[in-house]
Amino acid sequence: MTRPLGVAVVGFGWMGHAHTRAYLRARHHYPDLPITPQLVAVADPEPGRAEAAAAQYGFAAATTDWRELLTDPRVEAVSVTAPNFLHREIGAAVAASGRHLWIEKPVGLTGDDARAVAAAATTAGVRSTVGFNYRAAPAVAEARALIAGGAVGRVTNARFRFFSDYAAHPDGALSWRFTRSHGGSGVLGDLASHAVDLARHLLGDIEALVADTTTVIPARPTVTGAASHFSRADGPPGPVENPDHVHALLRFAGGARGVLEASRVAVGEQNTYGFEVHGTTGALAWDFRRMGELSVSTGEDYQSQSYRTVFAAPGHGDFGAFQPGAGIAMSYDDTKVIEAVGFLRSIADGTPYGPALDDAVAAATVVDAMLDSARTGAWVSV
């Protein structure tokens, strides 16, 4: 037996679509899931957008005011996929209303914002999940298992790289992402937070770092109305207020050293997200663009020990919920389904699954430390 769970989505850009599709697909891939999500309501302030979402996906109600969702007794859980500057207000209000919360990273503009939402969820006793979906890739799950099992020996150093070209064009629209008041720390909150979560997920806590940031394109054409990551504009130029690129040296609590880089203006790079992890007896590497492949070098040869490709297969993370055999491709949207299922299971049995608000707080704390280090040029303890 399953029970229905009324869900709502706040903000209906790309990520609102991704959350909604994940809810609809959850029981397709996990037929034993004890909860069946039902699309109750959607909110977006852009005229006509919520109504279009309701027509496309079957939400029972649509509104331009997210506050109305918190007065609807049918709504038991809420996805917050609004812009970063709204995360704190909406996320804390959702939790305080007693509704479970699936919220996109970075959960606000600062570590204080993330901590405020986490505190609200703790006080209300609601379950939470945060959109660090790259850790849901089955090849990443296998990498974590190999590291934990000692397959590469003691981890000595690692590299985490999140490069994108979505803002590389100088005519890219000056959307909210490029202002401090709405987009916060720029590429640090957008992409580096994902890299930090992957680093912590694989290697544990980061204890100190030194970082440098830069804004490559200092001005962009303004735009009226909603704009996506990839929108172009031709309005009067306005200043870009937050960083386009960050690189940092990391010291992990377990003794490993790391390099972390993120860029939204990397020409030639389309979602080049991934990592390389080196240990005393082996190494691992993963590239999101080949999501189902993990490069593995293990053994006792040390020198001239080549990599081999391990294809994600049933038994690696949640792969078996999607495909029956090794090497069959999965997608970005599949990682959001895994995330949604963890959220729904946490509501069903009260046990956290996947990334939660404490992970968002940890990532935001590291991002804040990067900003402090970039301002001072000094190592910062996390």
UniProtKB/TrEMBL annotation:
Residues 6-132 form the Gfo/Idh/MocA-like oxidoreductase N-terminal domain. GO terms for molecular function: nucleotide binding; oxidoreductase activity. SUPFAM superfamilies: Glyceraldehyde-3-phosphate dehydrogenase-like, C-terminal domain, NAD(P)-binding Rossmann-fold domains. Residues 141-284 form the GFO/IDH/MocA-like oxidoreductase domain. InterPro entries: Gfo/Idh/MocA-like_OxRdtase_N (IPR000683), Gfo/Idh/MocA_oxidrdct_glycsds (IPR050463), GFO_IDH_MocA-like_dom (IPR055170), NAD(P)-bd_dom_sf (IPR036291). Keywords: Oxidoreductase. Pfam families: GFO_IDH_MocA, GFO_IDH_MocA_C3. The keyword Oxidoreductase applies. This is Putative dehydrogenase. The lineage of its organism: Bacteria, Bacillati, Actinomycetota, Actinomycetes, Micromonosporales.
